[in-house]
Design a protein that fits this description.
about 325 residues; alpha/beta; Rossmann fold; 2 domains; 6-stranded parallel beta sheet; about 50% helix; about 15% strand; transport; sugar transport
Length: about 325
């Protein structure tokens, strides 16, 4: 019996020793696998979308810069002023320069992007897309998408606005967008659908890409729309730049905070200030920081580690007059 007990003890000790050795070896291997600047040899072209310094584009850019810092990747930043034609030309130039990867805004739509995505695939250039999806292009030539799921996001915003504001049958609302950009206005069409399903009469006002960069350019369009429809109860804006400028639009037609229910997308220092002063009531946060950070991270992981492309819905829910304080400080830093 003593011999059997000793034998069992020896076997147990040996097993423990092997386990300790295995854990130690795994820990050592894990330590060796950790790398600084692990993506330093990867060259990426990153499309910010807007012009340098614009509200939304700045948050995207800050996310991309953080990813560049964390991965060590070589990143060239491309600014387009939200102009689809310019993006297409810049994408053509990006493919010709043969980087390892391109992170592209999907605003120009599949018809414009597809032939260039095909050229990129033939050249072995990895593609990621952010902010506006091009699923048919990705299905043919690969790539992931980082951004909000646009139609559901727009529809959810409209439904939440109906719930919060009490707007309903017989009331009027204005929805502002660049309606010529079919791929881009999927989100705003979702908002229109939700409002119309509640019986609201929707008036569409048309903007231009330039107004996204300088929202003051939209003052004549919005003021004219309000003067022609003085009984409008709600306005939905297409992006953070214009939503942050809501106080200016309201003051241009002598409206006071709360006279009109102002809604839209994103957060920014201007939007936080508008919440504080009662000009803005609701926004849908799509976390543009992630739209900058994750495409670069994914391209690095694909190129260095052979991982698959990321697909992430960055829609984070609603910010309103009750909870805006939770993101206020980060918004003022250009991170939310």
């Amino acid at each position: 019996m003593i011999r059997n007990s000793l034998s069992r003890a020896l076997r147990t000790s040996a097993a423990v020793a092997l386990t300790v050795f295995a854990v130690g070896a795994a820990s050592s291997a894990s330590a060796e696998a950790l790398r600084d600047d692990w993506c330093k040899d990867v060259h990426i072209r990153f499309f910010v979308g807007g012009a340098e310094g614009d509200g939304f584009g700045t948050i995207v850019y800050n996310g991309a810069k953080q990813a560049q810092h964390d991965t060590g990747a070589q990143v060239d930043f491309v600014f387009s002023g939200w102009q689809s034609e310019k993006m297409v030309q810049q994408l053509r130039e990006a493919v010709a320069s043969a980087p390892d990867g391109i992170a592209m805004m999907g605003h120009p739509g599949p018809a414009s992007i597809e032939p260039l995505a095909e050229d990129a695939a033939k050249s072995g250039i990895l593609m990621m897309y952010q902010n506006v999806d091009v699923p048919t292009v990705r299905a043919k030539f690969g790539g992931g998408y980082i951004g909000a799921n646009l139609e559901p996001q727009g529809r959810a915003l409209g439904a939440e606005a109906v719930r919060m504001s009490g707007i309903g049958a017989g009331d009027k609302a204005i929805v502002v967008a660049d309606w010529a950009q079919e791929n881009r206005v999927i989100r705003e069409l979702g908002t229109v659908a939700a409002l119309e399903e509640a019986g609201v009469e929707v008036i569409k006002l048309t903007t231009t890409p330039e107004m996204a960069g300088d929202p003051n350019l939209a003052i004549p369009v919005i003021s004219a729309g309000l003067l022609a429809n003085p009984d409008v109860k709600l306005i939905a804006y297409p992006g953070g730049q214009m939503l942050g400028n809501a106080p200016t639009y309201m003051e241009s037609v002598d409206k006071k905070p709360g006279d009109i229910f102002n809604i839209g997308f994103d957060t920014s220092p201007q939007i936080v200030d508008a919440f504080e002063k009662g000009w803005v009531q609701l926004t849908s946060d799509q976390q543009p920081f992630l739209q900058g950070y994750l495409p670069i991270l994914s391209l690095c992981q694909q190129k260095v580690y052979g991982l698959g492309a990321m697909n992430v819905d960055t829609g984070a829910g609603f910010v309103n007059g009750d909870n805006y304080g939770t993101v206020a400080d980060l918004a003022k830093e250009g991170l939310r």
